[in-house]
Amino acid sequence: MLKIAVLISGGGSNLKALLDAAAEPGFPARIVAVGSDTQATGLAYAQAAGVPTFVVRPSDYGSREEWGQVLAAALQEHGVGTGPDPGLVVSAGLMRILPAGFVRLFSPRLINTHPALLPLFPGAHAVRDALAAGETETGVTVHVIDEGVDTGPVLRQARVAILPGETEADLHERIKQIERPLLVETVREIAEGILVLPGELG
Ligand code: GAR
User: Fold this and answer.
1) What percent of the chain lies above the pLDDT cut of 90?
2) What is the chain's mean pLDDT, rounded?
3) Element (H, E) at 70
4) Taking the CB of residue 146, how many other CB atoms lie within 10 A of it?
5) pTM exceeding 0.90
6) pLDDT band per the 50, 70, 90 thresholds, residue 202
7) What's the CA-to-centroid distance between 175 and ligand 1, angstroms?
8) What is the pLDDT of residues 25-59, one digit of tens each?
């Protein structure tokens, strides 16, 4: 059974999809902790499911690296990222760039979901940027986090057509409807060994 920790910053609908999937009999992963950089509303989903939560705020630390060290320690307390069975960290709406020291500790067992077809539109405003560029199509990417911003190896992608006159909020909601099952299936495939993370032996 794959141990997963999920990192969020906001509403946590992707977290909710993972929690719901993990509650199904036969799902090959379980969520052992949910962390955030802020008092995210989505933490309530974890609490309702009886999953431990923690908040590690960057503003409480002198540097991003120091914040990353405390975040890493919180994950390791829950048995993720350490030992022979390190599990997987899933960034599902964490709106922070993880510092290099953190990435080196966890990658490639550190994945992110991003609302665009990477390498197009990296960063915090992917949906807005795709609309502003006049695209007719965008999508979602699940990728391994490396030391760049949304530059790590792509694991899975799905396309979403952009409707004429669509607002950022409407488009993002439609992307999330595709994103949630894609993230769940990617986690399932990693847990079952169907999807081998780059640099790991199949
Ligand atoms: C998701 O669409 C995720 O891809 C995006 O934030 C949303 C979180 O939604 N992440 C980024 O934009 C990271 N650059 P949720 O809180 O409802 O799961």
Assistant:
1) 97
2) 97
3) helix 64-77
4) 19
5) yes
6) low
7) 10
8) 999 999 999 999 999 999 999 999 999 999 999 99
Distance in angstroms (rounded) separating the CA atoms of residues 29 and 44? 20
Q: How many CA atoms are closer than 13 Å to the CA of 8, on its beta-carbon side?
A: 23
Tell the residue nearest (CA) to atom 4 of ligand 1.
Answer: 114
The alpha carbon of 137 and the centre of ligand 1 are apart by a number of angstroms equal to: 18
- Atom 17 of ligand 1, nearest CA residue: 13
Rounded CA-CA distance 38/71 in Å is 12
Domains and CATH numbers, the chain: 2-191 (3.40.50.170)
Name which of 153, 158, 162, 150 is nearest 185 in CA terms.
Answer: 158
Phi-psi region of 26 (alpha: psi -120 to 50; beta: other; left: phi over 0): left
Please give the distance, rounded to the nearest whole angstrom, from the Cα atom of residue 74 to the centre of ligand 1: 22
Residue 35 CB partners (closer than 8 Å, separation 6+): 5, 6, 7, 8, 53, 54, 55, 56, 71, 74, 75
Ligand 1 and 12: CB distance under 6 A: yes
